């Protein structure tokens, strides 16, 4: 099969189209013919070796957000069959989906929403899983039991970078699924401000300015929760000031320097981490991710959630797509259709 791969770490220039053996599914694996794949910040981090991995001994394929069709299944597969349309993020210690085919553990895969195209579906899984795990599992935000239940009507949440891939689904989860009374997002450009509002933000403030001053200017003393989608060591001082007592902050990226969380002690603020790949990496209830994706497929098919803005590249333009992802200037998601 053909794949975009790299044999050394570095910038987008290390990406090359090469021939690789078609993968063979393990017992719990699906062999998926990839139809569309999305980019995420983790692609660049793996490509540059931000995780300090050993030198590459074999070509590495990145890309952990995809949609496609099951071509064959491993001997132990029970949840899918050949011909099923699926969406998934996969696991970071396995080959990614920037290829004609990829093998993925069936437990972290969901059935693709019927109302989304493959490229629309490819843009969603990684950020869906990140947002749900971060807000519901890590910060313990209660989920409404039914349409008449609203435990979060008097609660507020701030989503940092509300127009980004993680932020834009985070805003939708907060407003449309968890029914927060106040959803605040941050954005700094006219197009990203408008997009954050389209996703459901009640108020948009500038992450480049003092957050507390901006909230107070709108009569808001602080927020109960913060979904922080950017590097925490760049904004912790700004963020921690706005969290109300007994609130919580969740971060989806690691810190590059020590953080003084002692400042949170008196207010009993929880400081949490979300790593979407943890379940697959450590084999801790990975089936929950498949369940989440299947639940969200229903949300899209029922019109509760909307797919995000897409910047679409040709398959031959993967280096340009990853360069845009690295720049941090895209809003919504970046997607490529797999065509050779």
At a glance:
With 340 residues, the protein is of the alpha/beta class.
Please describe the topology of this protein.
Elements: E1 2-5, E2 16-19, E3 29-38, H1 41-48, E4 66-73, E5 85-88, E6 101-105, E7 109-111, H2 118-122, H3 125-138, E8 156-159, H4 165-177, E9 182-186, H5 190-199, E10 203-205, H6 211-217, E11 223-228, H7 232-240, E12 243-251, E13 270-273, H8 278-282, H9 287-301, E14 310-313, H10 318-327, E15 333-337
Parallel strand pairs: 8-9, 8-11, 9-10, 11-12, 12-13, 14-15
Antiparallel strand pairs: 1-2, 3-4, 3-6, 3-15, 4-5, 5-7
Helix pairs in contact: 3-4, 3-9
Count of distinct structural domains: 2
* CATH third-tier fold name of the largest domain: Quinone Oxidoreductase, Chain A, domain 1
First-to-last CA distance: 10 Å
Radius of gyration, whole Å: 20 Å
Calculate the mean pLDDT score and round it.
96
Could you name the key traits of this structure?
Quinone Oxidoreductase, Chain A, domain 1, 23% strand, alpha/beta, 2 domains, 340 residues, Rossmann fold, single chain, globular
Folded structure, characterized:
The protein folds into 2 domains: 2-124 and 278-337, Quinone Oxidoreductase, Chain A, domain 1 (Alpha-Beta Complex); 130-273, NAD(P)-binding Rossmann-like Domain (Rossmann fold, 3-Layer(aba) Sandwich), CATH 3.40.50. The protein is 28% helix and 23% strand. With 340 residues, the chain is α/β, with parallel strands linked by helices. The mean pLDDT is 96.
